[in-house]
Design a protein that fits this description.
The protein is 15% helix and 30% strand. The protein is built from 1 helix and 6 strands. InterPro entries: NUDIX_hydrolase-like_dom_sf.
Length: 61
């Protein structure tokens, strides 16, 4: 059984990566993975010194 927990706030230091689910012109945005034949949502690891918003912006760009 899968357990899902939702939080109102979280300690910023615990956020290690960002996953971005976005829409553009009413359509969901996916990217093709460069090493697999799959389409996925944007995301990636947080770089040293980045805040999580910077990580999300960089990964979506």
């Amino acid at each position: 059984m899968l357990e899902v927990k939702l939080y109102d706030t979280v300690d910023d230091a615990l956020l290690k990566f960002a996953v971005i689910i976005s829409k553009s012109n009413g359509k969901w945005v996916f990217c093709k993975h460069k090493e697999r034949d799959t389409f996925e949502v944007h995301g990636g690891h947080r770089e040293f010194g980045e805040d999580i918003i910077e990580t999300a912006k960089r990964e979506l760009q």
